[in-house]
Structure prediction request, 601 residues.
Amino acid sequence: MAIIEAKGLARTFKSRKRTVEAVRGVDLTVQDGEIVGFLGPNGAGKTTTLRMLTTLLEPTAGSATVAGADLLRDPVGVRRRIGYVPQAIGQTMGGTDPNCLVQEELLDQAALYHLDKAEALRRAEQLTSQLDLSGLDERLVKTLSGGQRRRLEIALGLVHQPPLVFLDEPTTGLDPQSRSNLWDHIRRLRSDLGTTVFLTTHYLEEADALCDRVFIIDHGVIVAEGTPDELKRRVSGDVVTLQVNGAKRRASELLAAQPIVHDVAVSDDGALRLSVFHGAEALPTLLRVLDDAGVTMHSINLSRPSLDDVFLTMTGRSLRDDSPSAGHGKATDAADSPAGTRR
Amino acid sequence: MSFIRDTLVVFRRQMRLSLRNPAWVIIALIQPILYLALFGPLLTKLPATAFGGSGGTAGSAGYKFFVPGLLIQLGLFGSTFVGFAIISDWRAGVIERFRVTPVSRLAIMTGRVLRDVLTLLVQAVILVLVSVAFGLRAPVSAVLLSLGFIVLVAVGLASVSYATALTVKSEDAFAPMLNSVVLPLVLLSGIMLPLTLGPGWLQGLARISPFRYIIDAMRSAFRGQYATTVMLEGVLVAVGLAAVCLWLGSRVFLRENA
Prediction:
């Protein structure tokens, strides 16, 4: 069953000088129980789309059903059934008050969802143990480490046990250890509770490690969609790199004749680079062909394209170049976030 | 009703945060008390005619004139500056976090306003008690009525302050805006000296400040005169101001996009 179904979702920001089409018609469907990643450079429309789906921003066009409620007709119904964890970087932080106690934040959040006191206490206790926050109840939020604070923010999004949770850049700014720890928590959300997770990320390895399916958004439209594996295969298949002893030309001709190989190139260091579909299954065939022809090798290597390659192919730019510190990133970032455009 | 419950949830949270750092409630009182101690005595030596009396010096009539002004000044500064706090809340992502929950979006404002009103009431009571020590003599009913005026002023100004702050989202823009609005309002309200001392054009200009009507009504009560046109004007202006400001504020908090 689809838990998110969006059709033609669009958002235009108007300021005195110009009109910015931040999102230009997004169609997406997310199934119940999926972990879905939303990838895109700064200014691509990620955050704007997320803000529309979470009722923070009214779409200028399109419609959507989120967690069984109509986004436009019943926004409060949507809010009741979703959890949202804002991004903790940029203009606004992740939603916790530095001067609150951890316990107070959890209980206040429960009250916002109209949970009664006993239920609130029970949920607070559950969440602190699930998200490794035990013993921090009486600590001020500002004294928490980055990872602890992020886990608290995620706990706040889960207080009312929503079937669907939106995480905006959940691990940005965390050290690698905290990040992989958080990944475990996110995986457990789905495996233990069946929660659907919709996350945006800057990190391709995060999408790769965590997501069943990935949407790539650029210039306000979705340019690719699929499982990480499907997307990688769509780029150019896998790459097999061979070092043969002599007979390079003969080997190259032999291999190029194989139907599973769709491209052969000789790289600078004299190795043969083969583009093949389904590299793992192709290896035995390649080995046998060379062996039958009496060509010996001294190394063979199979590498799969990364999501970064996918990204580069789909959008013409690398995610990594698009760090927030890059000069051009600033301007597009402002267009992406509604707060940056004064209306 | 869920709106009231939501308002109380927000109120409790804000009150708890205020009580965690109660020093500023007292700090806000330093300015009016300094005025009371270092400026008030000047008024008692003015001729009584300046305050509508006759013969000799004003004496305690000076305080009957000055304390209502100080109360309004306390309300003006106290309530218009509350917006700063919501800018840091917005920056912390707290406002957005609340807006994604089923809580009434208006309660995000009204819960805060309730906290501000309560804080201001406490400050006003302390200020009145200190004034009595300095020589204010006024009927209790007049003080209670004045507290009612203060509540209306605080409701209105705090709402507009939050709405404005959440619209500009920057302390750098909000601070000069406040200064350019609050100072003329204070000066045109006749807080320090009777406007009747001024030239005609100034008295005419002062008619645009709603606080001038409210202060006049409070002063009328402090002199023990309740059934006056001045009182009626004051009540109408105070209620109208609170209603209009509350409406303006709610528009910002209830809009779909923030």
About this structure: Chain B touches chain A through 27 residues (CB under 8 Å). Residues 63 and 136 of chain B are 5 Å apart (CA to CA). Chain B is about 75% helix and 0% strand.
